[in-house]
Amino acid sequence: MVAADDVGVILNPMIVDGQMHGGLVQGIGQALYEEAQYDESGQLLTGSYLNYGMPRASDFPFFNVGNHPTACTHNPIGAKGVGEVGAIGCPPAVINAVLDALAPLGVTDISMPVTPEKVWRAIASAQAAASTRD
Amino acid sequence: MTTCVTFSFIVRLPLPRRSILRQASQGKLLGGGRAFCQCSSWTWPSQVTSCRLGVTELRGIRTEGNQLIIGAFTSHAEVAASAEVRAKIPSLARLADGIGDPQVRNRGTLGGSLAHADPAADYPAAVLGLSATVHTDRRTVPADRFFTGLFETALEPDEILTAVRFTIPQRAAYAKFASHASRYAVVGVMVAQYPGGVRVGVTGAGPSAFRWTAAESALTARFAPESLAGLTYPADDLTSTPEATADYRAHLLPIMTKRAVQTALG
Question: What's the complex ipTM?
Answer without folding.
Answer: 0.87
